[in-house]
Design a protein that fits this description.
This protein is an alpha/beta fold. It has 7 helices and 6 strands, in the order αβαβββαββαααα. The protein has a single domain, classed as Pyruvate-ferredoxin oxidoreductase, PFOR, domain III (Pyruvate-ferredoxin Oxidoreductase, domain 3). Helices cover 35% and strands 19% of the residues. Helix 4 (148-155) crosses helix 5, helix 4 crosses helix 7 and helix 6 (178-188) packs antiparallel against helix 7. It is globular.
């Protein structure tokens, strides 16, 4: 599922052994409390695929079944980019996500495209730095507006906004932790970018703290 190319933020390493066993249908699997379908979306240069790889890698390290499916638009900075991640305790029937449980969007175009697909009772984490108004969605959907770009700039690098958003998502969902994400970062970040590990780790924690302080 993985490809050698990725969006042009902090380049990511391929995930080794990323796979799922296909036995049950997704409809059957949704009765499992530990089953989560996530779409992460934005534009090229925002580190969307790196965020998806991180979520998948940390889930694998936690012993979960995982699928990761990237989707590319124009493979240039500013083109579209999104990925789908499924995390479960049991086998996964298909990597395709049509109606996610959670949606993380980093720009308005992605919000407009994917928000209508979000399941009732789902979670929307949106980058309020680039999205100026909350969408009209079902009342059962929880919306978390995180100024990811601003928080990343405070840390010294706007490129860390993807990690801020992931930290916020992990804090809200609670099935995996920002600390576990930080531990998985070296596995998905190309070695020549390991000098950014402290920045990305702090961005994860800053996103989590933002949600915690907002509750």
């Amino acid at each position: 599922m993985d490809r050698k190319r990725n969006d042009k933020s902090f380049p990511a390493r391929p995930i080794e052994g990323l796979k799922a066993k296909y036995r049950m249908s997704n409809a059957e699997m949704t009765t499992n409390d530990s089953y989560e379908e996530v779409i992460i979306a934005g534009f090229g240069g925002q580190g969307i695929l790196l965020a998806g790889r991180l979520l998948a890698q940390m889930a694998m390290k936690a012993g979960k079944e995982v699928t990761f499916m990237p989707s590319y638009g124009a493979e240039i900075r500013g083109g579209t980019s999104n990925c789908a991640v499924i995390v479960a305790d049991e086998s996964i029937a298909s990597p395709i996500v049509s109606k996610p449980d959670s949606l993380i969007v980093m720009n308005k175009a992605s919000l407009n495209k994917f928000a209508p697909r979000l399941k009732n009772g789902g979670l929307l984490v949106m980058n309020s730095s680039l999205i100026d108004s909350k969408p009209q969605l079902d009342d059962t959907i929880e919306i978390i507006a995180v100024p990811a770009d601003e928080l990343a700039v405070e840390l010294g690098n706007q490129k860390a906004a993807n990690m801020v958003a992931i930290g916020a998502y992990l804090q809200k969902r609670g099935h995996l932790t920002p600390d576990a994400a930080a531990e998985a970062l070296p596995d998905v970040l190309a070695k020549r970018y390991h000098q950014t590990l402290p920045l990305n780790t702090e961005a994860l924690r800053r996103g989590a703290e933002f949600v915690k302080n907002s509750e």
